[in-house]
Design brief:
By secondary structure, the protein is an alpha+beta fold. It contains 2 helices and 10 strands.
Length: about 170
């Protein structure tokens, strides 16, 4: 690096990055999926959630999205997945998505709100997921289900598990 060159301090002035939060909400063999008409080019169906606002905690952001978009009063449970997503110029910036397990009572049904931005909310059979979600979203959902079952946290890159053939990562040995 040459002297006199203006270089940003990535600690105090980091590059822009998105933080997404999503909820894995299951009911028996089904999980809750939502459509995102505003993101059809990326993935029409996916897990409910959205982006965290500046200075907002991830769990608070997820609760906010579930309330405003689906009318659900729910809080984030256990962290299941951390999924790093590279920038796609013209579509989205680099980001990290966090998937949390969320429980709702069996007698509560999510309802898409007018201000929420979702097109539809639907309980989807796990074995039918491939008909709804695009490849990277499907992989993220499958890894979320596996993490919920195993009690581990999955570390992904665009839905693909990291660290060799391990589907989820556990504590360091």
């Amino acid at each position: 690096m040459s002297h006199g060159q203006d270089v940003s301090d990535w600690f105090t002035d980091p590059p822009p990055r998105r933080v997404g939060v999503h909820a894995l909400i299951t009911r028996g063999p089904k999980l809750l999926g939502v459509t995102r008409p505003y993101r059809q080019s990326i993935s029409q169906w996916g897990l409910p959630g959205g982006s965290v606002a500046a200075n907002e905690l991830r769990r608070a952001g997820l609760s906010r999205h579930l309330a405003t978009r689906l009318g659900l009063q729910a809080t984030a449970g256990r962290l299941l997945v951390i999924d790093d997503v590279p920038e796609k110029p013209g579509q989205h910036r680099e980001g990290t998505n966090y998937v949390y397990q969320v429980e709702i009572p069996d007698d509560v049904e999510p309802t898409v709100t007018e201000v929420g931005g979702f097109g539809e909310a639907k309980w989807i059979d796990r074995d039918q997921l491939g008909h709804f979600a695009v490849a990277h979203s499907l992989r993220r959902i499958q890894q979320s289900l596996l993490a919920a079952k195993t009690g581990l946290v999955a570390e992904l890159f665009l839905g693909d598990p990291q660290y060799g053939s391990q589907a989820v990562s556990g504590p360091a040995a």
